[in-house]
Amino acid sequence: MGAAGYFGTIDYIFMGLYVLILIGLGFYLKRLASRSLDNYITGGKNIPWWAMGISGMASFLDLAGTAVIVSFLFLLGPQGLFVEFRGGAVLVLAFMMLWTGKWHRRSGCLTGAEWNIYRFGDCWGGRASQLMGVIATVLTTIGMLAYLIIGAGIFLSTFLPYPPELCSLVLLVMATLYTMMSGFYGVIFTDLFQVCIIMAAVIYISVKAFTGIGSVEEISEIAMKVTQNPDWISGVPKWNVQMPEGYEMYKHLLIFASFYLVRTIVAGLGTGADPRYFGAKNDRECGKLSMLWVFLMTVRWPMMIGIAVMGLYLVNDLMPDQSKMSQAADLIQTFHPDTKKPQWGELISSISNTPGVHDPQLVGELKALLGEDKWAEKMNLLSFEGTVNPEKILSAVLMISVAEGMRGILVIALVAAALSTFGSWVNLATGQFVNDFYKKWIRPKALTRELIFASWGTVIGIVVCSFLFSRTLDSINDIWSWMMMGFGAGFLVPSFLRLYWWRFNGAGSAIGTLLGIAAAIIQRLLWPDLSEIWQFVFVLTVGFVSSVTAALLTQPTDPEVLRKMYMETRPFGVWGHLKDSLSPEEREKTSREHRNDLLALPFALIWQTALFLAPMLFIIHNWAGFAGATAIGVAAFAVLYFVWFRNQPKGNFYD
């Protein structure tokens, strides 16, 4: 069945309107974005805090991430949230809300890479650190876009009679043209438009799931039959959970969740260099936009658990005997023995959508095995391992369980989420490359027009590299886990130490980042099957040893540069001699701010986790779990309010 079978006239009308509005916004915002590089990168610091908070939510609610999280919720129920402590639960927002966002804003810098000059000085160490910051951001963006490309391709190819690569390529072209034109203005204002569509999708899916499922006993029975998980409705992470082939590494859920939490804390301590914070007007706005950002991220979870529980019912009805999936996969691999996992999605899409070009014997045997009814839909759910592909649950539910008309809106909502994330990452990498490499090293006297053209060229280069990289990857979870636990660990130590240790310098930052990234790439090439835990340990160890060693073997940061940075930013950590130089009144004021921020952290993390967990338990009718999570969330927020938010200044803390 092709696209015409899944989309009706109303769907196409909504899709056409969406594209026209997006193009119109791009041309309108091009004027504003082209006035200066500052406008292009941070919106000229004239964008309201609430708009940036809403934009942050849209940029984190991506299509590929939604598909990954839905896959774990499908397998584990609400406990899938704890797998996403590695990144999808965005617990780093707690750190950005409490202190790292405002620390970066106080610098007055334009980008995170420029901040390295502010921290280490305009010397060889500072410039090397700035350059490595650009390289790290560009490489991270390439990896994240590759992850988005795979997710978009898998999703769209389920609905359209084209292979995943072509679907993602068309989406990339549209997103690239728009992002090139409108810069940070486009990121923010398009996100406001797209959040309206996303909210419509959230409400529809949540209501449909809540009203369309049975009791917790019925859900438990179906979940046990489909996933073999006896604790699917629980919100409490278990020591051991049932996982299918290809996901066995996650069976010790509590260990993984604890390890992911440690990783998140290390990563969170070094965050904050987001364009939204550089574009905020004062300290209070940093906290408010972050709190709004966290609160709005809540809407993602009832939608995703709604899709997951609808997926349970769908798979139970569509394929009551899942042993046939394994036989079907073996049959396909017999006829296509050279097909590897990265090419599996393209092959399945081709067999499903254009069976006439394949061996008639293969197609005939597959139809006999799976049944003629909804044969293409069953094929699209088939994984390389011969199980139900959990990464396809999202698209399968929309394709089969959602009515015509609303289906188009939901597809647009998820495409909008993908474009929001795409725009945010590309804008971040482009801003740093042009401001901190092209303008700094190649054309210091370049005029605004030239810098905008350089930005356009950078966007195209990053997108092309991302598409080529995506062609080498096995799955969405494959690249997401490596980006979070392998590559991302390469620069965690330098990002952390520069904020908390006075003796850390530009050489330590540059060399630590370089060797950390190199370790992650070497691991990917030589030991691609290394578990996530050992990826993180290996890369983090290399980054830590190289960062500290390089810092101690080279000259400290210029005392005047360091003093200026400390007096303006006021971080906590090992800054003893600088803090001692403050007057008693200023020292007490600084200590009080630090004390409030640190005391609030555990309550912010608990509040955020409960905020995401409670609505999921509500959707699946687990009333006891919902009441418990809600009570914990309310109590944590009360402490957060009295310890932290109530003490926030009306503007800047040190005015």
Keywords for this structure?
single chain, 655 residues, mainly alpha, Sodium/glucose cotransporter, 2 domains, 74% helix, globular
Give structural notes.
The chain has 655 residues and is mainly α. The chain folds into two domains: 3-316 and 404-647, Sodium/glucose cotransporter; 320-387, no CATH class. The protein contains 30 helices and no strands. It has helices at 3-6, 9-33, 37-42, 49-60, 63-76, 80-83, 92-106, 112-120, 124-159, 164-212, 216-227, 253-269, 275-278, 283-297, 300-318, 323-335, 341-353, 360-370, 375-380, 393-400, 406-442, 448-470, 476-485, 492-500, 506-526, 532-552, 559-569, 576-580, 584-619, 623-643. Helix 2 packs parallel to helix 21 (406-442) and helix 5 (63-76) packs across helix 9. The radius of gyration is 25 Å and the shape is globular. The termini are far apart.
